[in-house]
């Protein structure tokens, strides 16, 4: 499999568990899938992989491990995905794997949960402990010259308690000397209340009437953005040889 089908993936999620639907036909995780779907014969970890949707859309000849803290989600993954996926119940801050084991690690929309944990934890006064532990663990288990793929919502769009650009950058650079942060969907939100004025939602939907969704997904990822604004972040962090 060297292609991805947005409609197929959406149908797969909704069929398995509608509550797990990402809520957006142009979610950054579709872009992530488009980047990793070509991998073959690799060891791949999806940390916080929930019901295993991302791994189920990758080549079967990969060694695929789906890790999550939710036993219920892992049970769904085990029952629904018959495509060489091993499911492990564990925390993203304490990965049960030896050093330099995986070729690639996926951390799709999990860092915001680590931040939430830090904000609710007294230790947060010493910094984002859970975020840093999570990134450190990703670094530890990925091979030399391996890559970790992060996605996470951008607080410039949500205006809640998601990660800011600087929070994300500072946490990743503690461990990865080489990384690239991309801005996914930089169309503006002109009004907080009226969805029709949210260009981040309406423009991709309008474009999908004349273009393939897959091409729109790829066009939404930008290297630069004014005021570090976007709906989400997409990050590729590489482990250099020590």
Keywords:
242 residues, 21% strand, 10 helices, 8-stranded mixed sheet
How would the blueprint of this fold be written?
Blueprint: H1 6-16, H2 28-36, E1 43-47, H3 53-56, E2 63-68, H4 71-80, E3 85-89, E4 102-108, H5 111-119, H6 129-141, E5 142-153, H7 155-158, H8 165-173, E6 178-184, H9 199-207, H10 213-219, E7 221-222, E8 232-238
Parallel strand pairs: 1-2, 1-4, 2-3, 4-5
Antiparallel strand pairs: 5-8, 6-7, 6-8
Helix pairs in contact: 5-6
Q: For the largest beta sheet, what order do the strands appear in spatially?
A: 3-2-1-4-5-8-6-7
The dominant shape is globular
Number of strands: 8
Strand content: 15-25%
The named CATH superfamily = Vaccinia Virus protein VP39
Give the helix level as a range of percent: 25-40%
End-to-end span in angstroms? 34 Å
Q: Can you write the helix and strand succession as a string?
A: HHEHEHEEHHEHHEHHEE
Tell me about this structure:
It is a single chain. 35% of the residues lie in helices and 21% in strands. The protein is globular. An eight-stranded mixed β-sheet has the order 3-2-1-4-5-8-6-7. The longest helix has 13 residues, at 129-141. The chain starts with 5 loop residues before the first helix and ends with a strand. The chain has helices at 6-16, 28-36, 53-56, 71-80, 111-119, 129-141, 155-158, 165-173, 199-207, 213-219, and strands spanning 43-47, 63-68, 85-89, 102-108, 142-153, 178-184, 221-222, 232-238. With 242 residues, the chain is an alpha/beta fold. It has a single domain, classed as Rossmann fold.
């Amino acid at each position: 499999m060297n292609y991805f089908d947005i409609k197929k993936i959406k149908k797969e999620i909704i069929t398995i568990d509608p509550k797990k639907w990402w809520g957006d036909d142009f979610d950054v995780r579709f872009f992530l899938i488009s980047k990793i779907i070509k991998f073959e014969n690799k060891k791949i970890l999806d940390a916080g992989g929930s019901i295993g949707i991302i791994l189920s859309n990758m080549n079967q000849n990969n060694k695929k491990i789906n890790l999550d803290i939710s036993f219920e989600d892992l049970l769904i993954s085990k029952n629904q995905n018959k495509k060489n996926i091993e499911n492990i119940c564990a925390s993203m801050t304490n990965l049960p794997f030896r050093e330099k084991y995986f070729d690639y690690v996926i951390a799709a929309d999990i860092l915001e949960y680590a931040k939430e944990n830090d904000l609710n934890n007294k230790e947060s006064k010493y910094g984002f402990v859970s975020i840093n532990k999570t990134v450190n663990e990703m670094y530890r288990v990925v091979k030399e010259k391996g890559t970790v793929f992060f996605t996470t919502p951008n607080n410039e769009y949500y205006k809640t308690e998601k990660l800011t650009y600087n929070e994300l950058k500072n946490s990743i650079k503690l461990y990865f000397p080489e990384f690239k942060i991309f801005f996914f969907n930089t169309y503006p939100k002109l009004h907080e209340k009226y969805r029709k004025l949210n260009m981040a939602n309406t423009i991709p939907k309008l474009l999908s009437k004349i273009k393939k969704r897959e091409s729109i997904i790829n066009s939404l990822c930008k290297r630069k953005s004014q005021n570090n604004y976007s709906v989400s972040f997409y990050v590729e962090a590489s482990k250099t040889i020590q």
